[in-house]
DUF218 domain-containing protein (Aliterella atlantica CENA595), 169 residues
Amino acid sequence: MVVILSCIPLRMAIAKQIAPAPQAILTLGGDIDREIFTARFAQMHPSLDIWISSGANLEATRRAFQQIAPTRVHIDRRAIDTVTNFTSLVADFKQHKFHHIYVVTADYHMRRAKAIATFVLGSQGIAFTPVAMPTNKPVESRLHLLRDVCRALLWVLTRRTGASLHPSI
């Protein structure tokens, strides 16, 4: 386990050498405001495809991205929580040969998202650049952070997230 985890920073550094600029945008679902924020952000990056992991209802999501070419927008509904936002899409990112992506989420959620991304994406040789949507909400608890870091580590080691172990996850 120590060997696997010690390789993550190296894999992320190599990924940033291969792709210094992000090659796609990943939005962690959970709030239509994140999707609206991402649509505006995506207009500043017209060459990048957008991946929305879960998110608002489908019609609201489509409305948020109506100014973006539909071929750029990929909506994935497999995730049920923050850990699976990453684990359900990492194989797709590898298939598209992405080495560096933007990760968009709310500012209060970013600490946890960055920790999970470091383990899940980093273990697969994918670097990320965080983009925080400003809110007035307090940062999530350390307990949520610790729980999901453990789940991300579980995924790195077993390819299982533990999402089915707790009904409220």
Observations:
- The chain has one domain: 2-161.
